[in-house]
Design brief:
heterodimer; A: about 650 residues; mainly alpha; two-stranded antiparallel ribbon; B: about 725 residues; 32 helices; about 70% helix
């Protein structure tokens, strides 16, 4: 009995169980303080659980692990699979880490239905975890979509003035996008079934193999469909207009979860699904996406500068900051510096922006306003608050030594080193101007709120009542103990990740690392872009995928390069797929010490134009299971170019 | 000596900063922050001294800071870089230059910290101030010790942050907040360029490490190698010019050079010890340090160094003219800092990095002294900074007046006895020599720069003593400022200060106490005299050798034809005894006697350039002081008449050439307008399109709602039409197949 198998589902179901605990007919739970305490404890337990997951995780080889799947409808290939790798485990930890903080931070703001609030909060947590741990697209999509429901209620029930409008806009906008994503996913699965004699599969790893079978046109459509959902979620300029409204109107908890976690679903989805499934299209789209991201960085930063509402300013800053994430993801530089930086940036942004939203929430608790014209000089009355606020601002600005810098620096240097035709120095330079602009608008915000002459419209009655009732009477330098407990973990993590980013980066790097696994396929197409004429004309594949007749147009060196990359990144199935196909065309020869095959050429390609599909599958199964040593380059022979 | 001790240099101030921050927690602890801060910086200075005496040389690596490996696990940093990854370590490097910088930073830093204890008495943000100062020393020492550019950038941004926090120390004053913000943002413009320079360096060299490790080559080594390959004229690659240009822009931001100098005068809104430490002695010189450190990279480009020199010379002159008419006590010194930094860049640009660092060193002493004495005056005058409202203070503040006099002499460059004379002279002479040698074909430009520097020397002597004579001579007259150091007087009655102004009413200027204020100033004053520069000559040998090695790479080719080749440049100065005496007409630093050193040798006005330049600049200093004495001490009527005669010029100068207004109109306002426009576009256009798409289904619904009328005929018709349509479609599709 392996406990490792049950660690992940437990992580997923723990918040659900806790959520339903709130529905139990226990009258005490209706009291706000009790419900709040319950939620604080349970969300902390979830975080403890994720620490346990981390302890079970094999950090020396951070590929997909702790995985298993439950079969649901085998005939349709429907099953629920889960697992974590070096990327997703950090996002799971970020989720569970932010949740107790969010709970702690929203005691005052939520003045009704505390139970409902925390129910939806837990459900949101579960949905987010579900998305990050999914190893099949259906579970991914189900959880991805399901995040909308708790958020809809959190915004719609507990938000500010325009909460209903915000909830509706958010729901419609992101839902519309993700429906298209579903269409894209289903199309890939459909093509998979077509190729595999009607055997359906929704496993992400299985669908990755489709990258070799989808034509370029198909890949473009798949990419567009996925972008519809993920670019809106990220949000990428110009699909960002739902965000300022939703962030501003949401309760603090909602804003923190939106900015810190929900936005991360976009880049995560692109990295996990879109790029590996449509690698050629990812390369082709990269310059355009990079351009939009760069415009977004500058545009949103300038918009930030003229905001009057502190929360809206921070909301727009997310649009600007996530631009860095996008350019990093689509940099495709050789060492994956950009993509690793983008993942780090997701964590960094979640912590810093989360902290800023919590700070603004605390101001709203006190003064019931976020208007920069009505507030000012808070350093006098709330020095400790000011300390935290300035720290989060500096983390957002990208001050070296704090977490924001590492992500910013890595994404930019990755973008700068991006291969020709993908991204490049120009993108990095435009993005780097965000360094100036973020200083401008965030110091503008700090100058208005923290420095200057003290100015505020007086403490709100709600705040007084809570203090009179003795819920939280202790004030330390302008913050209550609860508030200190809310902000301190975030501040500590901002510093720790800034000083020791290796904690995270070590699990992302490497030729066998999780990031390389996502990007390896796409990177094989970079050279096509630079070399092949066929690629320029978009005729690399015909609509039936990579067929034998097309191969003649493909330069042999490119094929060989592709094989090398696959072998080096230890992608067995893909390698074998490619080897068999290419062996039939005489581009490679390979030799396998196996009972089944002596030379792949003779076995598979003997006199037939197309490899026999069943035979291929049989070979594949046996190779993958029997010959772990098969994948070394010595066993693959490349005939000299032109020798054939 | 174990080099690991060196970690203490940045670590002690960091711990000090953390403890000072803790002192903010309770009012009772606040007082403890001063000794903590001063002690941590002082100890850091002691460690620096130990390192200097021990001749520290080499690197200490703590851990890998930002690393993305992309090879097999066995690969080291070199492998990581080769395969497209990146590896940036927290790694400190020690060579003579670093030790010199550390000496200045921690030495001058500890003096200023001691002084600040007296100056900041009774301030509300007492512990906050010292936390900032200690953190600053941490960042600054990191900057000069960093062995890679990213760690250097950490220090670079760190000092920027501390500068922001310390300028904004009096955060309730709007001008202080605005000045802090301006400083940070203008610096960020420079940092933006610096970052891009870093990217280019990484692109070209595949690493950001400066000195490399045992197995890998750092940037400096690689650049030196390619310089050796290309020869003295440098390479013609565009990237080799872009890199220094971008690094230069970063340096100009931090070191307040044109066009990014505008933040420094405003930065005087911070407490005066901050102005002395951050904005005169240390932080603003980090740009000079950067270029000196990266010299091989700059030497690769034929036009980079001359650009550095040209902008330095231009800024020196520009700032000096503005300082001529400023009536702000600290403002004059601020512009003089900008001007003196300009000199340093002239030095770097004329490949006289030894001269530049020497000036950096002496300037740190005398400018810190000037600012702190200005702080004493300001302190005594309850915050008064307007020099028109003070006169004849010498009788009331004799010690301060005397100390400031020493500082002013050094800034003016009075011959022989002051430190400023020696360092300034070397820069001017080297610039002139580069011009006369027509180095790399930019001789004409170097000549202009050198003459601008000479003109600036005259202006400097004049405006410096204009200030001193105005404040300390003439009839006694003062108008107190509006800041009251209430607590201080109560707290200090027991101290020496109580005696010094014992009988005086609190609203009259009084002398500062010896401890903790005037004593550190006396130390700085000694450093401002020839004793200070002699100390530098004693310490600077190692750096001088490095400097000669670097210079030998870019000397004019004919230099090699002469009897003395490269080897002589590397020859330590101290061993060159006889030759030194034979050639060393200028005496003093002995630099002139360096045999075979052609780039910095030429004949100027009939003598060796260094000798002649000494007479010229010494004479100008005396003339400047004399003129100032006449106009501002002996015959103030003539001053007023002159001011009236040149009223339009004075107005332009007092408005600082309207540069701030120009930037506001050309950069700030358009950007802000763009923000407004984008916000409108966002709300109306982009969101509008989204709304339009959102309305489409609703409109469609409204359009077809009448069809749902409930009348059977209508449905029948619809059905028939539908079937017909489907049939048509079917025909088309099947027809094709």
């Amino acid at each position: 009995m392996n406990i490792a198998q049950f660690v992940i589902p437990l992580q997923l179901f723990l918040p659900v169980i806790f959520a339903f605990g709130l529905l139990l007919p226990i009258p005490a739970l209706s009291r706000r303080r009790v419900a709040w305490s319950y939620s604080a404890v349970t969300s902390a337990l979830s975080f403890g659980m994720s620490l346990f997951v981390a302890s079970q995780f094999d950090w020396s080889n951070p590929v997909m692990q702790l995985q298993a799947s439950f079969v649901w409808m085998p005939s349709l290939g429907l099953e629920f699979g889960y697992g974590v790798d070096g990327i997703s485990i950090w996002l799971v930890m970020l989720t569970t880490f932010l949740m107790p903080i969010v709970v702690l931070g929203s005691l005052i703001e939520v003045d009704h239905d505390m139970r409902t609030f925390h129910f939806w909060l837990h459900i949101l947590e579960a949905a987010l975890i579900g998305t990050f741990i999914a190893t099949d697209v259906l579970m991914f999509y189900a959880c991805f979509e399901f995040t909308l429901i708790p958020l809809f209620f959190l915004i719609g029930l507990f938000g500010h003035e325009k909460k209903l409008k915000a909830a509706m806009t958010f729901f419609y906008y992101t839902f519309t996008g993700s429906v298209l994503t579903l269409a894209g996913v289903i199309y890939v699965a459909y093509r998979y079934a077509e190729i595999h004699d009607g055997r359906w599969s929704f496993q992400i790893a299985e669908l990755y193999t489709m990258a070799n079978h989808l034509s370029f046109t198909e890949q473009c459509w798949v990419m567009l469909a996925m972008l519809a959902g993920f670019a809106i979620k990220t949000p990428m300029f110009p699909f960002h207009t739902w965000l300022p409204l939703a962030h501003t109107e949401a309760p603090t908890a909602g804003s923190v979860d939106l900015a810190g976690l929900v936005l991360k679903l976009g880049p995560y989805g692109l990295l996990r699904l879109a790029i590996p499934m449509a690698p050629a299209a990812a390369i082709a789209f990269a310059p355009y996406l990079g351009a939009f991201a760069c415009v977004g960085i500058v545009y949103a930063a300038l918009v930030c500068w003229v905001q009057r509402d502190a929360k809206k300013l921070i909301a727009y800053s997310s649009v600007s900051h996530m631009g860095f994430c996008m350019i990093g993801l689509f940099a495709f530089d050789e060492g994956n510096i950009g993509a690793a930086g983008a993942i780090f940036y997701m964590l960094a942004h979640g912590l810093a922006t989360g902290g800023l939203f919590l700070c603004v929430g605390m101001l709203y608790d006190r003064f019931e306003t976020r208007d920069l014209r009505k507030l000012g000089g808070l350093a006098t009355e709330m020095p400790l608050f000011s300390f935290f606020f300035v720290l989060f601002v500096l983390a957002s600005v990208g001050l070296p030594g704090l977490n924001g810098f590492v992500g910013e620096f890595l994404t930019m240097i990755g973008t700068f080193n991006s291969p020709d035709g993908v991204l490049g120095p120009v993108f990095a330079i435009v993005a780097a101007s965000g360094v100036i602009l973020s200083a401008i608008y965030l110091l503008f915000l700090t100058g208005k709120l923290i420095w200057g002459k003290e100015k505020h419209p007086g403490y709100s009655r709600k705040y007084d009542i809570i203090h009179e009732h003795g819920v939280d009477p202790t004030h330390v330098h302008g913050l209550s103990r609860r508030e200190i407990a809310t902000l301190t973990p975030l501040a500590v993590m901002c510093v720790v990740l800034g000083v020791f980013p290796g904690i995270v980066l070590n699990s992302l790097e490497g030729k066998n690392g999780p990031v390389e696994q996502m990007l390896a396929q796409a990177k094989t197409y970079i050279d096509y872009d630079a070399n092949a004429v066929a690629w320029e004309q978009g005729e690399l594949f015909d609509d039936d995928g990579l067929s034998a007749s097309d191969a003649d147009q493909e330069p042999v060196e490119l094929v060989q390069q592709k094989v090398r990359r696959l072998v080096e990144s230890d992608q067995r199935e893909e390698t074998l797929d490619l080897l068999i196909t290419e062996a039939t065309r005489g581009n490679v020869e390979y030799r396998v010490e196996s009972s089944l095959v002596t030379t792949g050429r003779r076995q598979v390609g003997s006199g037939e134009d197309e490899p026999d599909l069943a035979e291929r599958n049989r070979l594949l199964d046996s190779f993958v299971s029997e010959t772990p040593a098969f994948l070394s380059l010595e066993r693959v022979n490349f005939p000299k170019t032109g020798a054939e | 000596m174990n080099l690991n001790v060196a970690i203490l240099v940045p670590l002690l101030p960091l711990i000090g900063a953390a403890l000072c921050a803790v002192c903010c927690w309770k009012h009772a602890w606040a007082k403890a922050s001063y000794p903590i801060c001063a002690a941590s910086i002082g100890l850091s200075f002691v460690v620096t001294l130990l390192l200097t005496l021990g001749g520290a040389d080499g690197a200490v690596q703590l851990y890998e800071w930002i690393g993305i490996a992309h090879g097999t696990p066995a690969d080291d940093a070199a492998g990581a870089a080769a395969s497209g990854g990146i590896s940036i370590a927290v790694r400190y490097f020690f060579d003579p230059l670093t030790l010199l910088m550390l000496f200045v930073v921690t030495g001058v830093g500890s003096m200023i910290a001691v002084y600040a204890g007296g100056y900041m008495q009774g301030d509300e943000g007492f512990p906050r101030f010292f936390a900032g100062v200690a953190l600053f020393i941490f960042a600054m020492t990191t900057l000069v010790m960093a062995d890679n550019l990213v760690l250097l950038f950490l220090g670079w941004e760190g000092v920027g942050l501390c500068s922001y926090l310390l300028i904004g120390h009096y955060f309730q004053k709007d001008y202080a907040v605005a000045a802090a913000k301006k400083a940070f943002i203008v610096n960020r413009v420079g940092d933006f360029c610096l970052l891009i320079g870093l990217f280019l360096l990484f692109d070209k060299y595949g690493t950001l490490s400066l000195h490399g490790t045992e197995t890998t080559k750092g940037i400096l080594q690689a650049a030196t190698d390619s310089l050796k390959a290309t020869g003295g004229t440098g390479s013609g690659d565009a990237i080799d010019t872009w890199i220094p240009m971008l690094l230069m822009a970063g340096a100009f931001g931090k070191s307040a050079q044109f066009p990014l100098y505008v933040w420094l005068p405003d930065a005087m809104a911070g407490p005066t010890p901050v102005s002395a430490l951050v904005h005169a002695a240390t932080m603003v010189t980090s740009g000079v340090y950067l270029i000196v450190r990266m010299l091989p990279v700059f030497q690769l480009s034929p036009c980079a160094l001359v650009t550095v020199a040209a902008i330095g010379g231009f800024t020196a002159l520009l700032a000096a003219t503005i300082a001529l008419c400023s009536n702000d006590l600290k403002g004059v010194f601020a512009y003089s800092t900008v001007s003196q930094l300009g000199y340093m860049f002239v030095g770097v640009g004329a490949v006289s990095s030894y001269g530049a660092v020497q000036h950096l060193y002496t300037h740190a002493f005398f400018k810190a002294l000037l600012f702190l004495t200005a702080g004493s005056v300001m302190h005594a005058m309850a915050g008064q900074l307007d020099t028109r409202k003070m006169s004849g203070l010498l009788t009331r503040m004799p010690v301060t007046g005397g100390l400031m006099f020493v500082g002013c002499l050094a800034l003016a460059g009075l011959p022989v006895i002051t430190a400023g004379f020696w360092s300034k002279d070397m820069i001017l002479a080297d610039a002139m020599a580069a011009g006369l040698n027509d180095w790399r074909g930019y001789g004409w430009l170097y000549l202009i720069i050198a003459w601008a520097g000479i003109a600036t020397a005259l202006l400097t002597a004049f405006y410096t003593f204009r200030l001193w004579f105005t404040v300390f001579t003439g009839e006694e007259r003062f108008e107190m400022g509006d800041e009251h150091h209430h607590e201080e007087h109560e707290a200090d009655d027991a101290h020496a200060e109580g005696r010094s102004h014992g009988g005086l009413p609190h609203d009259a200027p009084h002398e500062m106490p010896w401890w903790p204020m005037n004593l550190p100033l006396a130390v700085l004053a000694i450093g401002s005299t020839v004793a200070g520069v002699a100390l530098f000559w004693g310490m600077g040998d190692g750096f001088k050798n490095d400097h000669y090695e670097a210079i030998a790479l870019v000397e004019p080719h004919d230099a090699h034809a002469h009897g003395n080749g490269h080897a002589d440049h590397a020859e330590p100065h101290g061993k060159a005894g006889p030759a030194d005496e034979a050639n060393g007409a200028g005496g003093g630093d002995g630099y002139h006697g360096e045999p075979g050193h052609h780039l910095h040798h030429a004949t100027f006005l009939g003598g060796d350039v260094h000798t002649t330049m000494m007479y010229v600049s010494g004479l100008l200093a005396i003339v400047g002081i004399a003129l100032a004495a006449y106009f501002h001490w002996l015959n103030r009527g003539a001053r007023d008449a002159a001011a009236k005669a040149f009223a339009p010029v004075v107005r332009v100068l007092q408005n600082k050439y309207y540069v701030d207004e120009f930037y506001d109109a050309v950069i700030v306002q358009p950007l802000r307008l763009a923000g407004q426009v984008f916000y409108l576009v966002d709300a109306l256009l982009i969101d509008g399109i989204v709304k339009l798409i959102g309305w489409a289904p609703r409109l469609l619904g409204t359009g077809i709602r009448p069809a749902q009328s409930g009348r059977l005929q209508g449905y029948g018709l619809g059905m028939a039409l539908g079937v017909a349509l489907l049939a048509l479609l079917g025909l088309i599709v099947w027809g094709r197949m």
